[in-house]
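BUG-391 | component: ligand-complex export | severity: low

The export step for L4NPZUNZ jobs runs without errors, but we want the raw record kept on the ticket for reference. Input record follows.
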Amino acid sequence: MVVLAKPPAALEQISMVRSPSPGDNLAGVPAVDLSAPGAASDVVRACERYGFFKAVRHGVDGGVVARLEDEAVRFFASPQAAKDAHGGGRGPASSPFGYGNKRIGRNGDMGWLEYLLLAIDRDEISDSSPAPSFSLRFVTVRRNASTSNKFADGYVTIEFMTSCMSRVFRDAANEYVSAMRGMARTVLEMVADGLGVSPRGTLADMVVADKASDQLLRLNHYPPCPLLQNIMPNCSPTGFGEHTDPQLISILHSNSTSGLQVAIHDDDDDNNHQWVSVPPDPSSFLVIVGDSLQVMTNGRFRSVKHRVVANKLKSRVSMIYFGGPALGQRIAPLRQLLQRAAAGGDEEKESRYEEFTWGEYKKAAYLSRLGDNRLAPFLRQQQPPVAKRHA
Ligand SMILES: C=C1C[C@]23C[C@@]1(O)CC[C@H]2[C@@]12CC[C@H](O)[C@@](C)(C(=O)O1)[C@H]2[C@@H]3C(=O)O
Ligand SMILES: O=C(O)CCC(=O)C(=O)O
């Protein structure tokens, strides 16, 4: 009798992928030295070809990263019941925010991970603040209400509406988010410079200066998964399924455990892609182009598909800042790019996409499955596929 190997119950509903091997590593991960004079054009080149890059010499203090990572590790090591108490609940009315275990989003996606998803809310705290709709929510307040430009530059503090975390955790998250907002500004200004769009704050202000912008912080923990070692030695569970990020920009940090893979498209055939591993480098950050930035560049930048494969032996901890604009922000190609095209430049002069606001897109995104192509319903009819990328 042949007995078929069956995955352990803990892995039911989690899809398997081929285990990464050293040969899958992306040779020459695109890297940009953010302190270099030519950084803006390097950023644009990487976002066009790959949809992501590794930011080095970024100016973020290692202590800021270490303090939040230590707190995240401490939180994930706490008793399961304590973590579950901060979950967003289950079912269609549940909140995506707070602590989650294996369930990603509300539409049936599963992964070998646990996480904390936090909204960064910039309302000032006051007695009249509406009660939060979920159990974990950052509320940012102005440190100095009279200096609004400082506010724009990231001088914010974060308070938790609930006391699930220690003061130390709160402070660590606060300083980390400030650093990420600073990097988001730097990169988005470089994008504007590199594309010849003025003022250079056009994109950065939507995410960093607009008081109503929609920013998230996600802390992921992928426990080691030795369960398949003997029965399926060449397979690994999916940690986080393939997806693109809906926002403008994401900034990812991970510890030294591998697992992140990105889809690299053929230069000649846009429908063809290959999954490659991005070796971890805790001294750097990965900047990822989101769907909204793809639209704002009229498809010139690519929102890159990425996923995480669980590691058999080591825990992976990642921390991601997602920079989205205000819900009412129109998501459409930057006018100057279209105007330049109309005046005879080399870019397309019509938008490839139907118009939408970030609020509309976000609503649709949160009803979709992780791996769906969320921009497809917004593509204008009879548009050619996303332009062949520049080398
Ligand atoms: C399955 C889902 C999880 C997600 C919302 C969605 O319905 C589709 C997009 C997913 C994603 C991917 C990037 C970020 O991790 C995230 C927070 C986001 O903004 O979009 C997640 C959403 C989530 O985990 O709730
Ligand atoms: O953990 C990672 O490295 C990536 C996670 C991710 O893509 C996400 O949280 O959206």
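Assignee comment: Attached the raw record above. DSSP finds nine helices and 17 strands in the chain.
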